[in-house]
Design a protein that fits this description.
This protein is an alpha/beta fold. Helix content is 35%, strand content 18%. Strands 1, 2, 3, 4, 5, 6 and 7 form a seven-stranded parallel β-sheet that branches. Helix 2 packs parallel to helix 7 and helix 5 packs parallel to helix 6. The model has no long low-confidence stretch (mean pLDDT 97). Bound molecules: zinc ion. Zinc ion binds next to loops.
């Protein structure tokens, strides 16, 4: 199955800044390893990054200002910096599909399944999964590569993804093995 790895909102503001999430620290090395193996094996790596317009985006009413376009807070954390052949999609809503060209890109790459990683299990990962499901993509979630503010948000988020979108819950080691064995190409 042709897959892409999507890295959602692993940005300075989400890990170290205004929406700081300590629980996110432990997924950084897992995502790093996964995308490194992905790159080595020609799997497209796609970043879905919040890039909000100041004073406009309604999300600020709920979350306060974060990941404002052009600021350090909106940049991918140093540990997971995009490389030359990676794709970077800027988004202004939870879903990486909403009003972006992600779907077009996935179609051009002949992608059948998306491996979703990043933040948060119950917000942007969930909404990206919803849009992936509506468009017919298979959804794979390595549980050790997504996180949320609380254990409850994370666990109930995973459960929802599995029940409602048929997401396959797995872990990064298993995904890496499938990439190496060419189950995922
Ligand atoms: Zn946002």
């Amino acid at each position: 199955m042709k897959v892409a790895i999507i890295v959602i909102d692993m940005l300075n503001d989400f890990i170290y800044g205004s929406l700081k999430c300590e629980r996110a620290l432990k997924i950084i090395p897992n995502i790093k390893k996964l995308i490194e193996v992905g790159r080595e094996n020609g799997i497209p790596i796609i970043y879905g990054n919040d890039s909000h317009l100041p004073n406009i985006d309604k999300e600020f009413d709920l979350w306060g200002p974060h990941a404002v376009k052009g600021t350090k807070g909106a940049e991918v954390i140093e540990e997971l910096k995009p490389e030359n052949n990676d794709y970077v999609i800027e988004k202004r809503r939870y879903s990486t599909f909403y009003q972006t060209d992600l779907d077009l890109l996935l179609r051009e790459l002949d992608i059948e399944g998306v491996i979703l990683t990043g933040l948060h299990t119950n917000v942007c990962v969930r909404h990206t999964a919803a849009d992936a499901f509506f468009r017919g993509y298979k959804i794979i979630i390595p549980k050790d590569c997504v996180e949320a503010f609380t254990e409850e948000d994370h666990v109930t988020g995973l459960d929802y993804l599995k029940k409602i979108y048929g997401a396959e819950l797995t872990d990064s080691e298993e995904v890496i093995e499938k990439i190496r064995n060419k189950v995922y190409t």
